[in-house]
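Q: How do we represent a protein-ligand complex in a form that can be generated token by token?
A: Start from the inputs.
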Amino acid sequence: ITNTTFSLNRPSVHFTPSHGWMNDPNGLFVDKNGTWHLYYQCEWTRLTAAANGCIDCTVTPNADCRQPDCAVAGNQHWGHATSPDLYTWTNQPIALFPPNSTSGVFSGSAVIDANNTSGFFPDQDDGVVAIYTLNTPTLQVQELALSYDGGYTFTPYEGNPVLDVGSNQFRDPKVVWYEDHWVMVIAYSTEFTIGIFTSNDLKTWEHASNFTDMGLLGLQYECPNLIQVPVWENGTATGDLAWIMLISINPGAPLGGSISEYFPGTFDGYTFTPYDGAARISDFAKDNYAEQYFFGTDPSEAISIAWASNWQYTNVVPTGDEGWRSAMSLPRYNYLTKVERTGWEMGSLPYKQLDAVKGRQFSYDQDFGNNSVTIDYSNVTSGAMYFSANITLPEGGVLDATSTLNLTFSSSAGDRLRAGYIFGGSNAGVGWIDRRYTLGYGEDDPLFTDRFSVAGVALAKRIEGVIDRSIFEMFIDDGAFSGTSVFFPQEPLNNLTVQTGGMPEGSRIEIAVWELDSAWQ
Ligand code: FRU
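Then emit the structure tokens for the protein with beta-D-fructofuranose bound:
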């Protein structure tokens, strides 16, 4: 299947599995040729199960296997796709298989062992080691699989498991290189603890420290990342780097279900110390989980992808009728910045501003002030659009509750996906997303929370967003705040109305809209 095959919900510039089920991104790395590798939790064995009436559609997707019940989590594998630009993906064969039908290859990471620290790769500098959790009915243990062909095929290490603490709640190893040794962060999920382990050869791991009972606990910790990100000041990189501990929690997020939180701090190779005890959430909506960072990028570029869904309703959303479930978030550049009063904030922006997939610039590059315009984009066959709004306010101009920027994406069936920003009154500084009037799913599901908002202290100077058939991502002030929200319309959205009101004289709002498209294989 390619994403150019029309479907109501399948996004164009966000990765989706060709068929079957997908959750967390795994094993993200960029190789020495600049090819990006995305592995992901996938389940396709159900599609072959006679009991489901499905045929083997692992090679050629077939209409017969488009049954919603087939596209749910189960006997987890690692699917694989590659990309030159993080937007245009080529599906690759399944990379990791569980040894039997009662176990699963759960989440994990991958590294390039360029210096052969493991001894597995005496004759090459591009050996890849995947480090993942093997989940069985009684245990979760950590295993390695080796790739001698740059990440396309893997063989399980014969000395597996490499880490077994006798627990059935111990998972999602993420490995990075620190000066002269490997570092693994891993979740003791139900103990609200992230273990930090070290190794010289990826085969023997020593416990170094624990990061425990911090922030929002939810009911489980999952998918930790310990990464370096660039520090920005007033919108530009300072050249400094900071460490971030990122933890996914599920269930029990403040808005329900799953979300990620993060802690900026310092790391000495063995122990992570947060700057403060605050729990900071990385997304203000509900569909951004299990975010993972790429191995192999320059430290000045911290690039990640998250699973754009939520365990509360992921198994029942209507993309199952199209034979697949779940999209990844856009690839994001991440950074840490200081914001007024509330302190550190992790920001994220679409990687390279989506340049690889930007098409026609739609219409608006004009001064807006108080105005309204409707753009009919029904001839944009990808259904994907990127908009940006640069805002300049006059000094001393009076703002009130009516000073707003509103965006409405609508369909001929009456679907409306709305988003906006409030410049004045008691909600000054609030950005919001409203998926209530997307009519294909949600009305009867109390867990499919339909409105989200976030508040910043300073007024936004820039608001950006991407709409892509069934997913919307919004970025306020270079992504200091971002929201990721899926939605399911009854008909394709194909009109965008941008409207501003209550802006004082001398306000300028420059709106630009691009169509987006990418061709996958
Ligand atoms: C997070 C998670 C991980 C686990 C994987 C299984 O979404 O629950 O903790 O490894 O999914 O698919």
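The chain has a mean pLDDT of 91. The first strand starts at residue 20 and ends at 30.
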